[in-house]
Design brief:
Elements: E1 3-8, E2 11-14, H1 15-18, E3 30-33, E4 37-39, E5 44-45, E6 50-52, E7 56-61, E8 67-76, E9 86-93, E10 104-107, E11 125-132, E12 142-144, E13 160-172, E14 175-178, E15 182-189, E16 200-203, E17 207-210, E18 220-227, E19 236-238, E20 241-244, E21 253-265, E22 268-271, E23 275-282, E24 293-296, E25 314-321, E26 331-333, E27 349-361, E28 364-367, E29 371-378, E30 384-392, E31 395-402, E32 407-417, E33 420-430
Parallel strand pairs: 1-9, 10-15, 16-23, 24-29
Antiparallel strand pairs: 2-7, 3-6, 3-8, 4-8, 5-7, 8-9, 11-12, 11-13, 13-14, 13-15, 17-20, 18-19, 18-21, 21-22, 21-23, 25-26, 25-27, 27-28, 27-29, 30-31, 32-33
Length: 449
C-alpha cells in the first residue's frame, strides 16, 4: 500500500493518522524504514531511519519549490507476520514567501508607486494579504493583492510613517502554507511651509535681516527667494537674507520678494506654497542748501523755507543755532519765520545755523546730511558829527565826519562853490574799514563808495 502525504515545511506527519478507514493495520504492527531519500537531493531535511509503531517526523523544505522525501517501509506484527514493503512519499511544500518591498517616501498630495508583491517560490500560487497601521496616509487599513498607486495625504507639520505588513500564503498540491510576514514603510512628508515674512521699511544704508521660519518639524526646510528689483541683496538667493539696503534715488523704492520653501526628509524634497513680502528702502533724507543772510541790527531776516529734492514721503527739519543772541532760539523745527535781529556790539555777529533733515515713509524715520548756513548781523548804523573840516574839491567847509558803520548818510553843510555860498546836501556812505572819526575829502553830491 504505497502512501503519499502532502504537508508544509516544518510540519510533522503521522503515518497512523494518515491511514484511511480502508487501510487494515494489524494490532502490534511495527514499521521499519531506511534513511529516506530526498528529491531533489538535500531539498528536504529532517527524515531519519528507524523502527517504530508509527512514523512521525518533522520535515523541512530548504528550497522554494515542492520537494519529496521517499521512505521504503517494511512492517511486521508481534505474531511474527511480515507485511509487504510499501513506499511512503512525503511531498513537502516550501513556506509561502514574499520578497521584501522597498520603502517609499512621498510628498503630501503625491502619488505613490504601485506595490507589486512577488515571491521566489515556484509552483503553486502565492497570495498576499496586508495591513496598514496608519490609514490617514490615504491607504485603507487592510487589503489583499498588490497595492495600487494612491494619492498620499499628510496635513500635519511632520512626516507620517505608515508600516505595511504583508503576509504571503501559498497553495500547492491542495495544501495551503503560510509564510513569514514582511514589513515596509510608506513615509508621507508634509507640504513645505514658510511662515509669512513681515514687510519691512528701512533706510538707505541700513542693515537688513530676514530670517525665514517654518512650522514643519522632523526634517529640514530650505528657502530660495527672488526679488523684482535690486535693493542691495541681489535679485535671487538661498536661505536667510542679510544685506545692506541701498537706494540712491529721491523716493522710496519697494522690492517685492517671493520666498519658496522646500522640505527635505529621507532624501525626499517637497515643495510648498510661495509667500511674498515687501522691503521698502527709503532714500537718505536731504535738504537743499539754504542761502546765507546779512542783516543789520533791528533789521528783519527773510523767512527761511527748508526744501528737499525727495518725494514720496514727508521730510521734516530740525535746526540748531549757535548764537541765540541774534534773536533766534538755540534750536527749533520746521521753517524759520522772519525775525528781528539784534546786535548791540560794534562788530558783526555771525550765527551758524545747522539744519538736519529727517525723511519719513511707512513709519521709518531716516536721517540725512546736515546743512549749515549763516545769518550775519551787522552792528547799529553810524552817527554823523558836524563842524569838521573836509576838503571838498579844494574848498573848505564844515561837513560831516563818518563815525559809524555801513550806512548811507547825509548832512547839510555850507561852503562856497563857484563863487556862490549856499547850503549843499552831502551824501556820505562808508564801509566797515573806515575808522571812527576819519576825515574824508568829499565833493558836492558825493555818494560814497
Amino acid at each position: 500500500m504505497d502512501k503519499t502525504l502532502v504537508l508544509c515545511t516544518n510540519q510533522s506527519f503521522d503515518l497512523i493518522d494518515s491511514l484511511s478507514s480502508s487501510d487494515i493495520l494489524p494490532e502490534g504492527t511495527t514499521f521499519t524504514w531506511d534513511l529516506p531519500i530526498s528529491s531533489p537531493e538535500n531539498a528536504v531535511s529532517g527524515g531519519v531511519q528507524g523502527s517504530n509503531s508509527n512514523i512521525i517526523q518533522t520535515l523541512t523544505n530548504n528550497t522554494t519549490s515542492p520537494a519529496t522525501l521517499s521512505y521504503v517501509v517494511s512492517s511486521s506484527t508481534s505474531q511474527g507476520c511480515n507485511g509487504n514493503n510499501f513506499n511512503l512519499n512525503v511531498i513537502v511544500n516550501p513556506s509561502a514567501q514574499v520578497d521584501q518591498r522597498v520603502d517609499q517616501v512621498v510628498c503630501n498630495g503625491e502619488s505613490t508607486s504601485i506595490i507589486e508583491f512577488t515571491t521566489q517560490n515556484v509552483g503553486g500560487a502565492t497570495t498576499y494579504t496586508w495591513t496598514n497601521d496608519t490609514p490617514s496616509i490615504g491607504l485603507s487599513d487592510s487589503g489583499s493583492g498588490n497595492i495600487l498607486a494612491f494619492t498620499a495625504t499628510n496635513s500635519s507639520t511632520a512626516p507620517i510613517v505608515a508600516t505595511i505588513t504583508v503576509t504571503p500564503t501559498s497553495e500547492i498540491n491542495d495544501i495551503t502554507c503560510p509564510g513569514e510576514d514582511k514589513t515596509f514603510t510608506i513615509t508621507v512628508n508634509p507640504t513645505a511651509q514658510v511662515d509669512q515674512p513681515v514687510d519691512q521699511v528701512v533706510c538707505n544704508g541700513a542693515d537688513v535681516s530676514v530670517v525665514f521660519t517654518t512650522q514643519n518639524t522632523l526634517g529640514s526646510t530650505s528657502y530660495s527667494w527672488v526679488s523684482d528689483i535690486e535693493i542691495g541683496a541681489g535679485l535671487s538667493g538661498n536661505d536667510n537674507m542679510n544685506f545692506t539696503a541701498t537706494n540712491s534715488s529721491t523716493e522710496p523704492i519697494i522690492a517685492t520678494i517671493t520666498v519658496t520653501p522646500e522640505f527635505e526628509n529621507d532624501s525626499k524634497f517637497c515643495a510648498g506654497e510661495d509667500k511674498t513680502f515687501t522691503i521698502t528702502v527709503n532714500p537718505t533724507a536731504q535738504v537743499n542748501q539754504p542761502v546765507d543772510q546779512v542783516v543789520y541790527h533791528q533789521g528783519t531776516t527773510s523767512t527761511i523755507l527748508f526744501t528737499t529734492l525727495n518725494t514720496g514721503g514727508v521730510t521734516t527739519y530740525t535746526w540748531t543755532n549757535n548764537t541765540p543772541s541774534i534773536g533766534l532760539l538755540s534750536s527749533g523745527s520746521g521753517n524759520i519765520p522772519a525775525f528781528t535781529v539784534t546786535n548791540t556790539t560794534s562788530t558783526p555777529v555771525t550765527a551758524i545755523i545747522t539744519v538736519t533733515p529727517v525723511f519719513e515713509y511707512g513709519g521709518s524715520l531716516c536721517d540725512g546730511e546736515d546743512k549749515t548756513f549763516t545769518i550775519t548781523v551787522n552792528p547799529t548804523w553810524g552817527r554823523l558829527s558836524t563842524n569838521k573840516v573836509v576838503n571838498t574839491g579844494g574848498r573848505q567847509c564844515n561837513c560831516c565826519v563818518w563815525r559809524g558803520r555801513n550806512h548811507k548818510s547825509s548832512c547839510i553843510t555850507t561852503y562856497k562853490h563857484k563863487g556862490k555860498v549856499g547850503d549843499y546836501k552831502i551824501w556820505i556812505r562808508k564801509w566797515f574799514s573806515i575808522p571812527l572819526g576819519h576825515t574824508e575829502r568829499v565833493d558836492k553830491g558825493f555818494r560814497g563808495y
